[in-house]
Amino acid sequence: MKNTSKTFIAIVSFIFAGYLSCHANGEPTLSDNYHDVTNRFKSSLEMAFSQTNTINELPALRSLVFKLIELDVETTEERIRIADLLSDFLGRVRTEIIPNFDPLPVVSNVKPPISGGSPVFSGMDPLDIADPEARAQYQEAIRINQQNNLINKRQRELVSTDRITSKVVVKYIADTFSDSDSKLPQFVECIEKAKLTENEIDEINSHKNSNK
Questions:
Q1: Which residues of the chain have pLDDT under 70?
Q2: What is the spatial distance between Cα 160 and Cα 145, in angstroms, rounded to a whole number?
Q3: pLDDT for res 26
Q4: What's the pLDDT at 181?
């Protein structure tokens, strides 16, 4: 029985020592979750919008939006900070969306220009074209086709991102400032950053009025 008690005490001591060690070394704990998620979100946000016509970061960014919203924050300042980040995100998405976008022409394989009677076919290697001028034209046509494809995909991803996240972002803003003055600088800044529609602003104001 004495050995069992000693073993139990040793285990508890080991766990407690590990807990203290984590805090001493600054390793992530549950209380650090807010900083971890917000930092990841900011990093992903910059990566998604620092390079145009890329699509890889947008799905991950959408996931982080919901992680931000689900965070159990401890202070009003933290919640306002999240509202600001979400507003920045939504505003960037909406700024880049091209209204009434008409997809650019894209082909599966670009056809090279006819060059001196030499046989050519769609999708052939540019290096197989002997004429330097024709080769350059073909390479440029390939580049434009790839660029058009990326632009089309980017616009689809942006529209999808707006559709998936806009309602939850608007609700988070409304809930965050439900008891605040409509002229509060942080609230006004969020509204402007998010590029909200008139209907969304009315929805937020109605939510605020219902909580008075």
A1: 1-32, 53, 116-117, 209, 211-212
A2: 23
A3: 40
A4: 75
Q: Are 86 and 172 in contact (CB under 8 A)?
A: yes
Q: Are 65 and 170 in contact (CB under 8 A)?
A: no
Q: Please tell me what DSSP assigns to residue 180.
A: S
Q: The tokens of 90 are what? A: 């939504």
Determine the Cα–Cα distance for residues 154 and 170; give it in Å rounded to an integer: 23
Cα(191)–Cα(199) distance, integer angstroms: 12
User: Which pLDDT score is estimated for 108?
Assistant: 94
Q: With contact defined as beta carbons under 8 Å apart, do 109 and 125 qualify?
A: no
Beta strands in the chain (DSSP E): none
Q: What is the pLDDT of residue 148?
A: 96
Output DSSP code: residue 212. -
Scored b (16 or more CB within 10 A) or e, 75-106 reads: eeeebbbbbbbbbbbbbbbbeeeeeeeeeeeb
Distance CA 160, CA 61 (A): 12
- This prediction has a pTM of 0.77
Domain ranges of the chain: 34-210
Cβ proximity of 208 and 182 under 8 Å: yes
Amino acid in position 140: E
Region of 129 (left: φ > 0; alpha: ψ -120 to 50; beta: rest) is beta
Between CA 38 and CA 112 the distance in angstroms is 48
